[in-house]
Specification:
Blueprint (H helix, E strand, L loop, with lengths): L1 E8 L6 E8 L13 E2 L10 E6 L10 H14 L3 E4 L11 H15 L6 E3 L9 H10 L5 E5 L2 E5 L18 H13 L5 E5 L12 H8 L4 E5 L6 E5 L2 E5 L21 E7 L2 E8 L2 E4 L5 H8 L2 E7 L7 E11 L6 E7 L5 E4 L2 E6 L4 E11 L8 E8 L2 E9 L8 E3 L2 E9 L14 H4 L11 E3 L4 E3 L1 E4 L7 H4 L6 E11 L3 E10 L2 E6 L2 E2 L13 E9 L2 E11 L5 E7 L6 E3 L7
Parallel strand pairs: 4-5, 5-6, 8-9, 9-10, 10-12
Antiparallel strand pairs: 1-2, 3-6, 4-13, 7-8, 11-12, 13-14, 14-15, 16-17, 17-21, 18-20, 18-22, 19-21, 22-23, 24-35, 25-28, 25-29, 26-27, 29-34, 29-36, 30-33, 30-35, 31-32, 31-34
Length: about 575
């Protein structure tokens, strides 16, 4: 007795009509229609099977296709029944459908070397906005789905489904997807194992919608796999294994100590009766599933304590302080810490290069002395640290020595916003440090709150923005406009003439700052791409009200900023309203 099913497959490659004839005695996947899958023959083994899980390819790693290709070759050699990829297949982050088509074409060219059936689910780089959501639905099919294979349930979820809710935030999954997940779990309550795959590991956050799905999983045997963070970590919840998988060609900073989880890999899952075995495979290497645990990382997070103790005071000509260093070795091998300060002509640093060791169970402490002129303290010192674990690098980083305590920094959250305007460019400069001339030529606008302007898509006016977040999210306020710029205006009232320390965390490609109509050149970081970069500078306040203007531009529509000023005595006042008032 045989039965045949005709399945229509929607993918970015040519449309395939595939006839799958199944023997009733050989269990085959029970797929819903229109799922993103490249069909290839399945094994007929009714009991034991293996499948591969491929991690993120994008989010950095644009030059690492060779890693992905090597993984594809090795998976072919291991020959599992099928493969699943947990999202971030393309770089995305655009609304240009021609660019999307080109990026998907590039992905399929590399994926085409895989010899087994291949299923995929979307990540934040695949569905970054509603345009990309619609593109996925039209060209690939479902954004979430479930199927059974050899008496196991596979539940593939979309953590980017909120883009389908017309801007109304419910949770990451949306009501319909959660309802679907619950119904699948109810329909398949007696399977021998359930595998849940999703891109973002949303069990690490609260109020995401995962709580409802996890409750519905109940006490059944199940395993959860996610990606997104490009770093392998095994968590244990409800006596079940929850994996955050690392990248398979995506971007990250590699570390030599495998327990830290910072290495490219894919996974092979073997199901044999009620047993589920998982191999973490680095191209050219195979590791146990528990090679990188949250318990190890919790210990790593407490190894190194770098504490700034500094009093930057304008009442003294010279300010002094320390960097206190503690290396607490709770691991099983010798730890070595090296710290080296970059050259800085403004600061006296003693010593500027040091190394300490700590044996297992030992804590080693030391300190660095620093001093600087209280009237000329910028730029702040920068130092690098590296921790060796039995001769292999475990931790490394580049640190800013910030002498002003966080509690003395006031985050400015209230702004008048105006935008978006057309940036005057059509393509992103090939040199990321190149500032378009059209941005350089933008004049300061007349700060009349009653005036309207011709924006990128029509008439716009100043809007007051009272932010609940520390970062001013221009992307949301300016409707994710691409190749655009806008203004933020606020006011600071000072009791006297003074210079105050300020800093801005840019989350845009372009940015400039003006105080009372005069540009603050140190805030723009000339010659640097501003995205995700901090600038430190001083603001020369006059007595009374001062007008602070931020001009920022962005290519891809995802931009914001965080503006802070030092106010240790609460002497300053802040307001969006006093245009021109002194």
């Amino acid at each position: 007795m045989r039965k045949c099913v005709i399945i229509l497959i929607y993918v970015l490659q040519p449309i395939l009509f595939y006839s799958l004839c199944t023997n009733i005695y050989a269990q085959k996947p029970n797929f819903p229609d229109q799922i993103p899958i490249v069909e290839r023959p399945f094994t007929d083994d009714p009991d034991k099977f293996t499948f591969a899980i491929i991690g993120d390819k994008t989010g950095g790693g644009l030059d690492k296709w060779h890693v992905f290709d090597r993984a594809i070759d090795e998976i072919n050699t291991l020959n599992p029944d099928f493969a699943i990829m947990v999202g971030d297949l393309i770089q995305g982050d655009t609304t240009d459908t021609e660019q999307l088509s080109a990026e998907w074409k590039e992905f399929w060219e590399h994926q085409s070397g895989l010899d087994i059936p291949f299923l995929l689910l979307p990540g934040n780089h695949d569905i970054t906005n509603p345009v990309m959501y619609d593109y996925w639905k039209e060209n690939l099919g479902r954004t979430y789905y479930a199927f059974t294979y050899k008496n196991c349930l596979f539940l593939l979820l979309n953590t980017e489904e909120w883009h389908a809710n017309s801007g109304e935030w419910v949770n990451w999954f949306g009501k319909e997807q959660i309802k679907y997940a619950k119904s699948q779990l109810t329909q398949h309550a007696d399977v021998r194992h359930t595998f849940v795959l999703l891109h973002r590991p949303l069990w690490l956050q609260k109020h995401t919608g995962w709580e409802e799905i996890e409750d519905a999983l109940g006490q059944r045997p199940y395993t959860v796999f996610a990606g997104h963070y490009h770093n392998l970590t095994l968590h244990t919840r409800n006596d079940r294994r929850y994996f955050v998988l690392g990248a398979t060609g995506g971007g990250f900073t590699p570390q030599e100590v495998k327990e830290y989880g910072a290495f490219d890999h894919y996974s092979i899952v073997t199901v044999d009766n009620d047993e589920v075995d998982i191999a973490i495979i680095e191209p050219g290497n195979i590791h146990d599933a528990d090679v990188s645990t949250s318990a190890f990382k919790n210990k790593v997070s407490k190894l190194l304590d770098l504490k700034v103790d500094f009093d930057l005071s304008k009442n003294r000509s010279v300010s002094e302080g320390r960097l206190d260093i503690s290396l607490n070795n709770t691991l099983e091998k010798l730890m070595t810490l090296e710290i080296k300060f970059d050259q800085n002509d403004k600061w006296q640093i003693t010593p500027n290069h040091l190394s300490i060791q700590a044996k297992p169970g030992q804590t080693s402490k030391t300190s660095v002395s620093l001093s600087v002129s209280s009237s000329d303290y910028l730029p702040f010192p920068i130092y690098k640290h590296a921790v060796q674990y039995s001769g292999e690098q475990l931790l490394s980083g580049r640190n800013l020595y910030h002498p002003i305590d966080r509690v003395h920094m006031h985050v400015i959250k209230n702004w008048m916003l105006l935008g978006p305007f057309d940036l005057g460019v059509k393509t992103i400069p090939s040199n990321s440090k190149q500032v378009p001339q059209s941005f350089i030529d933008i004049p300061l606008q007349n700060l009349n709150p009653e005036k309207t302007y011709q924006g990128k898509s029509g008439e716009i006016a100043w809007q007051e923005h009272i932010s609940e977040n520390d970062r001013i999210k221009l992307d949301a306020e300016f409707e994710y406009a691409e190749m655009a710029y806008g203004f933020g205006i606020t006011h600071i009232k000072s009791p006297d003439k003074r210079r105050i320390f300020a800093q801005i965390g840019w989350g845009s490609n372009l940015g400039r700052i003006y105080l009372n109509g005069v540009e603050i050149p140190d805030a723009a970081i000339p010659g640097e791409n501003l995205y995700s970069w901090w600038a430190h500078f001083e603001l020369p306040l006059k007595k009374g009200w001062n007008t602070l203007t931020i001009l920022s531009g962005d290519y891809n529509g995802w931009w914001d900023y965080r503006m802070e000023v030092a106010d240790p005595t609460d002497a300053l006042q802040f307001s969006t309203k006093p245009f021109g008032v002194n």
